[in-house]
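Weekly structure sync, notes
Attendees: PL (lead), two postdocs, one rotation student
Agenda item 3: pending single-chain targets
PL asked that the sequence for the first pending target be pasted directly into the notes so everyone works from the same version. It is reproduced below exactly as submitted, 249 residues in total.
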Amino acid sequence: MIIQIIGLPGSGKTTLAKAFAERTNAIHFNADEVRADLNKDLGFTPEDRVEQARRMGALARLTDKQGYVTIVDFVCPTKETRDAFGKADYVIWMNRVSESRYTDTNKIWEEPEDISAMIGLGFTVEEEIEMLFKITGLPDWKAPTTLMLGRYQPWHEGHKALLDKARDRTDQVVIGVRDTHGTSEKDPLSFNEVAEGIQGTEQSPFIVKMPNITNIVYGRDVGYKIEQIDLGADIHAISATQKRKEMGI
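Predicted structure, written out during the meeting:
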């Protein structure tokens, strides 16, 4: 997912981007930081602004392809620069200042037309963050969360029943998928195949690729509990081996 936060200098883009990235474990690209290093060959001519936007879009797409939520914040002042950046999943316009301290930027600024949300004056950063959570549907890494950990080779009705119970514990559940692909005949599915199987049956699940965890240890007063849930004999009798046979794998 790519989230692009645009607006005049001083409108609060970077403050929001940093705060939301922390709450979503996202990668954050700030234009000033990118200009200071990767794009230090670029100035602020119209041509260089377009190239800056193109490179920012390229960076975002590279990390997006790796499965990371990517947040990009920069002015992106014109339709030409926005076209050069490319398609973002969500575009947030920080419309909190009518003029910035940079007169050249003020002169070329064009109000965006294709946006997901506009944020004006009167909102706290926390309120802006909550707005982005509602818009994007992303999980909150700071919220109480229940962990389901398994191989899910494949995801089946028993896992769904357990997920329903997990949601009774907390509003947010993370499905941790052990990366066991190819380690045995019982593990023919890759992480992406497992994730696609879960996504095909669940609405907006929070799925995370995990190492092949075989042991869990903890000390005292760790702030969480490990709980076994009895789902009943019928559910426990569901066989992943049989499910794989039915799938022909």
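Discussion points:
- The chain has two domains: 2-136, 145-247.
- Strands lie at 2-6, 27-30, 70-73, 90-94, 117-119, 145-150, 172-178, 206-210.
Action: rotation student to compare against the earlier draft before next sync.
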